[in-house]
Design a protein that fits this description.
Oligomer: homodimer
CATH superfamily of chain A: nicotinate phosphoribosyltransferase
Largest interface: A-B, 22 and 22 residues
Largest sheet of chain A: 5 strands, antiparallel
Radius of gyration of chain A: 21 Å
Strand content of chain A: 5-15%
Number of helices of chain A: 18
CATH class of chain A: Alpha Beta
Number of domains of chain A: 1
Helix content of chain A: 40-55%
Low-confidence stretches of chain A: none
Chain lengths: 424, 424
């Protein structure tokens, strides 16, 4: 049975939206941002597949939601990163928050979905809109199937989950969280996966990035921060008129984030403008204070060895106490390799996304339909009139218009040329 | 369909258990208390009606429950009375809390159910054990009925609820909360009632005393305090060897409660040893600081007029800003009378219990079975070897052995002789 509304709670979003949300609400309350939906999966044309009326209704329904009193209790009571990490005025802001208007239209075979408004409001659209588009796409994949074929899809999902659990039990040192809200097969399926993992792998499954399901299943809400922070703040500094505007913007994010959340949420996300640039601007003091790094693009093993471990060693910092969070299109194979490769040299906690919450199909095609998870993102493209850019350590993940990308490459001294197509 | 387990969450209890629980955990951590189940409904013999094996299983199942991480988020995030009203060490205590052992045996036609242990642990049994006994009794009432007759029971409950809502809409100044966890027809029915009231009477339904359903429905968790606090603390002072030990114990509870919760939870419960005694020992300063009174026995209107309003007037305190919480077996008729009677002279917020959450039957008898709500209580009888007493303003609600009751009457200068049988 398919529920009428895909999003039933505003907390059905990634937890990182809240620490980022408070950060933006506090430091950048008047900044206006535009974000757009992009599909990275080749040959899938959502304008030919999705019913735009239905998509519009689902998005409009999400706009009617508000944070309930109990949800605010939950957020106020969050203690996993820092006691009282959310201040009362921000919780009061959340109480009244409604998702702002969106712009949706057909654009040839594709769809144009964008969110323009105050950053501190429109930023909550990201994971919610992605989950809606993904679930409508899943529904379209199920539509042509017979009742029995649909049962087989779910049975496949269950067997693959069972296989994952079996393998993970053979690697008890692997610790991981569900990072798959945005590209999940469906809300129900993600909740099911979280419940099963909580019951079956209590010592390895650390939590879920989905705040609503963390609340419902009792596991820890997991979150760090996202590229959008650094992208927007960089845009705001672009016409500082200095040579080091990009480094200054990076410093601003790092310092304010530490001030706001201290050790609890101190995970660097270094690849926004290339990891080399980020690390060049990091001090020994930063490295010593912060808990660790999230890896989101480029080769995980090169990154871990050459960039992270080597740097900690060079600075004389004990990396065995630091944390690495791989989160770039993880599969169990990579997680096992990482477990072996890093051993006790650094703590590893995997952020497992799409392959965990959307692994029910076989990757085949039926006409326009690709039977597999889509690689969808919603990224900010404009902030107060400035074009925004993410470079990342994999040029296939770069976003932004070509001229601005070039400008940022120069500012960052970016030399990487790797380009690996994104499966997830 | 009847769920296998009646209690599914330790938060399926009255909210007041938590502020009281923290109070007891902090100030009386080593005190041992015994509480017993008492039935005040005439001619109902639970030993002949309930299956003791099933009762034991339900109680044992409740002992397996723990506060989940999300429930602790909820409690930590409670802000309706005072921000951060629960301290971290108490929340940590709750995380590990399991309901302690219970003693259950048949005693002729009746049952003997008692809870002996550390007060700070055994006190959580009260509402949970009451809800279990009540729901098992409800199940016994449903057992001899045909499928259709059962449907009629629920239909009757719905129609009575609809009638209440209709009447309440005609009296929009009546504000009330659900105080009916302990004597509800069933857990499911209470949740249904709370959901309906939230949706149908958002401006009049202020919240529910049930913490779990407050969380699930998003309404405010409502709570004050209970007689057990004053009863146990009085017992601990009984052999102070002074003339004023009872007044001293009352002072101790009042002062520590204020220190702990300040204005937010400052509701006097004056009838434990008779309202006259309580009021004699209350200062003008107390009356000025505290928010108001809960009424739980004796005539509401005499209490309100002669004891409360007159006293506020005598002290020159503006009673229009004070709060009166009637909670003694309320029915809609009394609530309407109180609304008219008190008008704007004092704010009134009704704590509506049994008649709200267990109003599906007609009060008839079939053999041993009384088709109506039972008047059940669980009261402390011993604290560190001291016999405990509640006198209340209605001698039918008094508890304790006769000799101790007489001792307390002397200590309190108790002269009341009213005795009105408890329907609820």
């Amino acid at each position: 049975m398919i529920d009428r509304w895909i999003i039933k709670s505003l907390m059905d979003t990634d937890f990182y939206k809240y620490p980022m949300g408070q950060f933006v609400w506090k430091y950048y309350p008047t900044v206006r941002v535009t974000s757009v939906l992009r599909i990275r999966t080749k040959n899938v044309h959502l304008g030919r597949i999705l019913d735009l009326g239905e998509l519009r209704e689902q998005l409009e329904h999400a706009r009617t939601l508000r944070h309930t009193n109990s949800e605010l209790h939950y957020l106020r009571g969050t203690n996993e990163y820092r006691l009282r990490m959310f201040c009362e005025p921000y919780l009061e802001f959340l109480r009244h928050l409604a998702l702002p208007e969106f712009h949706l239209e057909r654009n040839g075979d594709d769809i144009d979905l964008r969110f323009e408004g105050l950053w501190c409001e429109q930023m909550y659209w990201e994971t919610i809109a992605l989950a809606i588009v993904n679930e409508l796409y899943s529904n379209k994949l199920m539509e042509p199937l017979t009742a029995f074929e649909r049962e087989v899809v779910y049975a496949t999902g269950r067997l693959r989950l069972a296989e994952k659990i079996k393998t993970l039990r053979q690697h008890p040192t692997i610790k991981f969280s569900d990072f798959g809200s945005r590209r999940r097969f469906s809300a129900k399926w993600q909740e099911y996966v979280d419940e099963v993992l909580r019951d079956e792998l209590p010592d390895q499954f650390l939590g879920t990035s989905n705040t609503h399901f963390a609340n419902r299943t009792g596991v820890v809400p997991m979150g760090t921060s996202a590229h959008e922070l650094q992208m927007v703040v960089a845009g705001l500094h672009e016409d500082d008129g200095t040579d080091d505007w990009l480094a200054v913007s990076q410093r601003e994010v790092i310092d304010r984030w530490w001030e706001e959340y201290n050790y609890g949420l101190s995970i660097f996300l270094p690849d926004t403008f290339g990891t080399d640039f980020f690390l060049r601007n990091l001090t020994r003091h930063d490295l010593e204070q912060w808990k660790g790094f999230r890896h989101d693009s480029g080769d995980l093993f090169t990154f871990g060895e050459k960039n992270i471990l080597a740097r900690y060693q060079k600075e004389g910092i004990d990396h065995e106490k630091k944390l690495l969070i791989p989160s770039d299109g993880l599969t169990l194979g990579v997680m096992i390799r990482a477990d072996d490769f890093f051993g006790n040299r650094i703590k590893v906690s995997d952020g497992w996304g799409t392959n965990l919450t959307n692994d029910l199909f076989d990757g085949s095609w039926r006409g326009d339909l690709f039977y597999g998870p889509l690689s969808l993102v919603i990224k900010p493209i404009l902030a107060d009139g400035h074009h925004l850019v993410k470079l990342s350590d994999n040029l296939a993940k770069a976003t932004g218009d070509p001229a601005t990308i070039e400008r940022y490459k120069r500012a960052a001294g970016y030399t990487n040329t790797d380009r690996v197509e994104c499966v997830y």
